[in-house]
Amino acid sequence: MIDRHDSRKLRISIWNKLLQGLGVYVVLILLLIGGTVVSKDFWSIDNFLNIVRPVTLLGIVAVGIAFITYGGNYVDLSIPAIMAFSGMVAVGAVPWLGISGILCGIAAGMAIGLINGYIVGYVRLNPIIWTLAMGFMLDGLLRWSTGGNQVYPDDTTRAGELFVALARFEVLQVPVMTIVLVILAATAHLVFKRTWLGGQIQFTGAAYDVAAASGVNVRRVVLYTFLISSFASSLAGVLLTSLSRQGTFTNGQGYNFNGITAVVLGGVALGGGVGSIVGVLGGVLVIGLLGNIMTLNGWGYFEQMIAKGAIFIFVVGAATYFSRKTGNEKV
Q1: CA separation (Å) from 66 to 41, 155, 191, 211, 294?
Q2: Angle between helices 218-244 and 196-206 (to 10 degrees)
Q3: Parallel, antiparallel, or unpaired: how do β-strands 170-171 and 174-175 relate?
Q4: Residue pair 283/24 in contact by the 8 Å Cβ criterion
Q5: 75: which DSSP letter?
Q6: Interval 184-222: pLDDT, tens
Q7: Domain 44-319 of CATH type 2.30.29
């Protein structure tokens, strides 16, 4: 005899898995239909380019954030500062080291990720409080060291010219930033699903104490997640600096919130241990399309921020509801 409560729980469980998996792509289809209704220019090439560039950078950042969230540490709130820092270091290093100065920018950002990973993983400080403080300190350092001014690449040199052109390169008419995102996402997907590290990140995020008791070096796993995220953020920061032709402490603002919103929309549980890169990419596309549709509809920046905040609250609330109904407290 089938228990009615169990059958109801099973139905909710199936819906929860769909929501965490490919449900975001249903929302994506609805947004595509909505964009067609809102504006006749929605499917134009210019509008498509307006969507692709910011979405690509957000996607790179979100793929990195997914590792931290999957591992049970929510998000790195110092990401905007890491992006600004890496870009400004790259601008300063390119005149001395040529185009390889880009690697200095990425390494500088990863150094911050290494510190964050050590403090959160080994010292066990709260990831939200620590990374927020790190973000403030790094932002203050950038403002103080530059006198609150922007730094500009010297595009009169060959290396500077290449740096400025970096974000605009195309391979067979495909933007190099898009290629970077595809490679990064494919690699992250393989790490999540096919490697020991992905398994240990999932185990650590799902049950930290059990993973530690089972012999997993959970502290090192947490450090790796922050290091991977900082690599993605630094890479995005260098590309953003190249695209905007300037290094400034404001580069990267908003990417932490938009990134975690995309990650949660894509079905990655804030508590860790649940989610996929395929879902994260769907969440990124939803954020990008939503912003584009609101812009076409005449919504201002502050109105868009209110809408995105409301969506984040709704998605987290829905995930919490279905998780509790199925007896899984991971949200």
Answers
A1: 33, 35, 12, 19, 26
A2: 110
A3: antiparallel
A4: yes
A5: -
A6: 999 999 999 999 999 999 999 999 999 999 999 999 999
A7: no
Dihedral, CA atoms, 163, 167, 169, 170, nearest 10 degrees? 170
Place of tokens 């969506």: 311
φ and ψ at residue 151, rounded to 5 degrees: -115, 140
d(CA 220, CA 223): 5
Hey, where are the domains in the chain?
A: 44-319
Give 162's contacts (C-beta < 8 A, 6+ positions apart): 99
Q: Which of 140, 149, 160 is nearest to 247 (CA)?
A: 149
Q: With both helix axes pointing from N to C terminus, report the angle between 218-244 and 101-118 in degrees, rounded to the nearest 10.
A: 140
Residues found in the chain: 331
Residue 289, judged by CB atoms within 10 A of its CB (0-12, 13-18, 19+), counts as buried
pTM for this structure? 0.90
φ, ψ for residue 104, nearest 5 deg: -65, -40
CA distance 235 to 82: 10
Q: What is the C-alpha to C-alpha distance for residues 316 and 311, in angstroms, rounded to an integer? A: 9
User: Per-residue pLDDT tens for 284-311?
Assistant: 999 999 989 998 888 888 898 898 888 8
What is d(CA 268, CA 261) in angstroms, rounded to the nearest whole number?
A: 10
**CB of 93 closer than 8 Å to CB of 297:** no
Distance separating alpha carbons of residues 282 and 198, to the nearest angstrom: 20
The alpha carbon torsion through 165, 166, 168, 170 (nearest 10 deg) reads 120
Q: How many Cβ atoms are within 10 Å of 90's Cβ, its own excluded?
A: 31
What is the spatial distance between Cα 235 and Cα 61, in angstroms, rounded to a whole number? 8
Q: How far apart are CA 298 and CA 104, in angstroms?
A: 40
Q: Which residue has 């509008």 as its token pair?
A: 47
The partner residues of 174 in beta bridges, in order of sequence, read 171
